[in-house]
Specification:
Helix content: 55-70%
Distance between the termini: 25 Å
Structural class: mainly alpha
Order of helices and strands: HH
Strand content: under 5%
Number of strands: 0
Number of domains: 1
């Protein structure tokens, strides 16, 4: 990634490293705090209403038309 964006953004190796770390931290927090909380909320509602849920797993690129 650094090689592709070094000249475009004028990045140093250290800036790139900090950006990657910040991005990974944000992704980790989103996955572990936001998504898990939403999933738990849905599961709790399904259990409270004695309903069945279906889980569909996909990556965003599976939905991109070719």
């Amino acid at each position: 990634m650094f090689e592709q964006f070094e000249e475009i953004f004028g990045l140093s190796w250290e800036e790139n490293g900090r950006a990657v770390e910040a991005g990974l931290k944000a992704q980790h927090e989103f996955e572990n705090n936001v998504l898990r909380a939403q999933g738990r909320e849905i599961i709790n509602k399904l259990e409270a209403e004695d309903r069945i849920g279906i889980v569909l797993l996909a990556r965003p690129y599976h939905m991109i038309p070719h």
